[in-house]
Amino acid sequence: MRYKEIKKASIFGIIGNLLLCIIKGTIGFITKSEAMIADGFNSAGDIVSSLMTFIGNKIASKPSDEDHNLGHGKAEYIYSMLISIIIIITSFIVIKDSIISLINKSKLIYSPYLIIVCLISIAIKLLLYLYTRKLSKKHHNLLIDANSKDHRNDIFITTINLVSCILSTKNIYMIDGISGIIIGLWIFYSGIKIFKESYDILMDRCISDDIKNEVFKIISSHQEIKKVIHFNSTPVGYKYQISFTIYVDGNLTTFESHKIADNLEKEIDKNIEEIYLTVIHVNPWKTN
């Protein structure tokens, strides 16, 4: 269900962004609006981002095999990193073109179609944002979360574009180039943020303190556990595999001590959604 819903969202993203890219690009070149052209480039990048989401999600959905014992979940983060690089490259192109526009003092040709395109874009992006945001919260998927943030950013970007179009009717043209630069910087910031999130997971960032505290809260409820050491966590797709060593009364039988560990593993996996697998090693606690 998770992968099917994300697949559907990526297809909607490809279709919606393709439509916006064509409309924005056409109107932007006709009216010579750098902000609209920049917005069109952003939509072009969004098409690639949605395509990357589709491919990454498809690979990540493959089950574990002999060569990939923990599955293919990290494909989400590899493709998220690719998306971030595309976004960063797009931001440089947008900023460069906008600066050239300011230097050359380019003037856009006002057209009511600019206003119409902005309103259509905001409406489509708002729908895509609400849809992907809901899926992001539901499935904790970085790929769809990146798309959701991108849609949200586009709403802000196109709003700036809309203001630029309105001000052009008052012969205030400089704001167009400035808007393009702001758009480029916003795109750059989004790309860096997604890159960092992907990098952290691929470099096996440890589990958050909040989740770790939840685990230790469950452990502390078992008074037969005397000590916990060697706590480790490894990202597995959008979840984590954790392992640690517990000390229990050395007078217990092997069966009894391992039964404590087995029950604890099941309790953690059941109650903490972010945990994919819990592995516990048992040591005897020597009592004086």
Description:
By secondary structure, the chain is mainly alpha-helical. It has 2 domains: 2-202, Alpha-lytic protease prodomain-like (Up-down Bundle), CATH 1.20.1510; 209-285, Alpha-Beta Plaits (2-Layer Sandwich). Helix content is 69%, strand content 12%. The protein contains 8 helices and 3 strands, in the order H-H-H-H-H-H-H-E-E-H-E. The protein has a 3-stranded mixed beta sheet with strand order 1-2-3, covered by helices on one side. It is elongated and about 85 Å long. The model has no long low-confidence stretch (mean pLDDT 82).
Question: Which descriptors apply to this entry?
Answer:
single chain; about 290 residues; mainly alpha; Alpha-lytic protease prodomain-like; Alpha-Beta Plaits; 2 domains; three-stranded mixed beta sheet
Brief digest:
With 288 residues, this protein is mainly alpha-helical. The termini are far apart.
Topology record:
Blueprint: H1 2-31, H2 34-60, H3 75-103, H4 112-139, H5 142-168, H6 174-202, H7 209-220, E1 225-236, E2 239-249, H8 254-271, E3 275-285
Parallel strand pairs: 2-3
Antiparallel strand pairs: 1-2
Helix pairs in contact: 1-2, 1-4, 2-3, 2-5, 2-6, 3-6, 4-5, 5-6
Biggest sheet descriptor: 3 strands, mixed
Secondary structure category: mainly alpha
Tell me how many strands there are: 3
Radius of gyration of CA atoms, rounded to a whole number: 25 Å
Average predicted confidence as pLDDT: 82
